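Aim 2 progress update. The chain analyzed this quarter is reproduced below.
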Amino acid sequence: MIAKFGTNNMKGMFASDHYNNGDPICKLKGLELSVRDRYTIQIGKTVHLNVSEPYRYMNHHCSPSVKIEGKIMLAAKDIEPGDEITFDYNTTEDVLACPFECNCCGKKIHGKFYEN
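Predicted structure tokens:
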């Protein structure tokens, strides 16, 4: 995995290897915190993992390339080298520290407590 600037001039995380749908990619590491911020991933009811580079640059997408289950990152579809690694923030976060409007669907991304 590598972090680099994508087409929108924002940092992203990109695959350096091929992964098949369902493949485990890695175990996320980081400091476990009781508070969320823009670089944490919620892994428990009150546990947020403060991930380091390049994982902190995983962008949101409504049709993501990976899913996060606890601390495990799994391929959500076949991934080729150079593909951006994205996940759906609404699947892990109860409430986002920094809600935003999604670039792919235009909806406000708040976290799963806000989903209709």
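DSSP finds no helices and twelve strands in the chain. Residues 12 and 57 are 5 Å apart (CA to CA). These observations will guide the mutagenesis experiments scheduled for the next reporting period.
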